[in-house]
Amino acid sequence: MSKTSVPIPSGSVSEGVPAWLSVDAAAWAGARPGSWARPFWPVLALLATVVAAIAVEPVPVCSEAVPCGPDWIGMVQMGLAVGLLYWYARLPELTLVAVPVLAVIVAWEELLSAGWASRAANLAVIAALGFGWAAAWTRLGARQRQRRLIEGTARAEQRRVELAGPLKRGAILIAAGLVLCAVAVGAIVLGLRAVHVYEGQAARATRTEGEVTGRTDMSLRVRTDDGRRITVDALFPEDYSLGTTVAVLEDEGWRRLAAEPYDAFVWQLLALAGGLPGLSLLTTGLLARRRAAALHHGPVPALGVLERLDHEGRTWAYAADDAAGSTPLFACTCVPVLPDADADPDEELGAEIDDMGDIDDIDDVPITRTRLREAVMLGVPYEGAELAFITSGADGTPEVTRTIGPVRMPRPGEGPAGDISADSTGPTPSPAH
Fold this sequence. Notes:
Elements: H1 22-30, H2 40-56, H3 72-90, H4 92-110, H5 116-154, E1 158-159, H6 171-204, E2 206-215, E3 219-224, E4 229-233, E5 245-251, E6 254-257, H7 265-297, E7 300-309, E8 315-318, E9 330-332, E10 334-336, H8 345-355, H9 367-370, E11 373-378, E12 388-392, E13 398-403
Antiparallel strand pairs: 1-7, 2-3, 2-5, 3-4, 5-6, 7-8, 7-11, 8-9, 10-13, 11-12, 12-13
Helix pairs in contact: 1-5, 2-3, 2-5, 3-4, 3-7, 4-5, 6-7
């Protein structure tokens, strides 16, 4: 490894581990998906086409023949469209499932009965969904290619990660996701129950016809056929012109327009507010737990790399022969693996950043925290991966760190925050091996 970096102490696990050289790292970086598959483009395409489809879609008019009841399929359609704006960027695994479901709903609900303008706009939505699905598939395929390259570079070298305590990664996300999903399911159940209660009351009610004589922002004034003048609530009073005839359902003080049955919009909104973040948190937690379990329980590929911390507490990894630290390969947030099994990862991260002092005052950050250090990378790096590193601690002894967040790939030209250069890394100790 580089002679200008802090070495791992002699006799550590680094002995016998193959180095991840620049030529292999370049091949790994070249396996990343093309710029067209970046989440920005599928998000932009979906957002633009959905807005266009909403703009040209005819506004339905409430009538007794086509009452404005609760639209549960529309709720699912809107929820998936909103969710995909986030899942494209963070959860391509969930994207592969959600996109076909939404495309089928759009094709079934919007294409069969719409006008030519609305049909064209919804075909554009389906095309945007197909583009997003292809981008997500490409990103996941790139991860598999990067895995094969790492395994080929590491050859038969496999090491175990000595992580103290039980596996806790993702537990909080899974718990929070389950709670929010339960809220969403409860909202749907209560909404369906309210619809059922309404239908029972409507079946017992007396149907009365009358002429609309006036209207406000939230009600209609109606003169019934028997000469009574009544006021009935209306969700869309603008749909009823003065002089038109409407049907009113009445039952012992309960009064409702026949064209406007019970609207479960509030329950649907609560279901979306709980279901979308709940599903995202649950999926993120399960993926993080699965990846951490692979790192926790079995031997994983091991490669020698260089790493450094930036002034924001992130770890940046470099090829083992990139002595100048000029080409960062990926970034992640890591914390030391402490012997205390009950340690809270968030407390560990907070303590790690606190030890660095005020990140806005670069002069106060210890040089050893931002200096290139030799390390052994355990695991396969790719977008969203879980890794562990064996490196030199502040006291010169081997230190094991693990990721507490997903691995992120830098964009071209992106690097560690702060003024960190090879010339400012301080005095170089003699290599220990």
